[in-house]
Amino acid sequence: MGNDALSLEKKRLRREAAEMIRGFSPDVLKEASEKITAQLLSSPLYRQAASLFVYVSTEREPDTRALIENAWKAGKAVYVPKCHGQSRMNAVRVFGWDDLTPGAYGIPEPVSPPADGSLPAIDLAVVPCVSATADGKRLGHGAGYYDRFLRAHPMPCLCLCFHALLRGDLPTEPSDYPMDAVITEEGTFSS
Length: 191
Fold this sequence. Notes:
By secondary structure, the chain is an alpha/beta fold. The protein contains 5 helices and 12 strands. The chain starts with a helix and ends with a strand.
């Protein structure tokens, strides 16, 4: 599949997933998110991690707020994304919800970047998706922020995905960063 055809196929799949997710009631999404969180909290990768890079969820993604609060209570260092321009993302440590403000695309981000821009080793990334496969292929929102960031800062990655959005296969490019596992409300799938 050529680059143009691949790009069009990914756009089609994103539209299809968005249409599907709009059909879910808030109660269904909340219940699925709670089950996904329970799966993640019982994961050995999460339990052993002293530091975590995690997205702050939007309304139609698996909710990460309970996960973030659990990590703070457990004494884990919590880092969240901060986007810069069209292509760059940093991980910034946050200590509470007051450290966040709406940023790029209205997504809560750290108020300010780290003073020196450095990033310590992080034990685990929890990554969002539009769709994913059980073997770790991930379809993101299309801007490539996570793929570029994770290539520059490799770490174990778990992708959170509603089970209805899990697919048998997805088109990928060499720049797409693979996930170590995909967690849905129905279980954990390792690549």
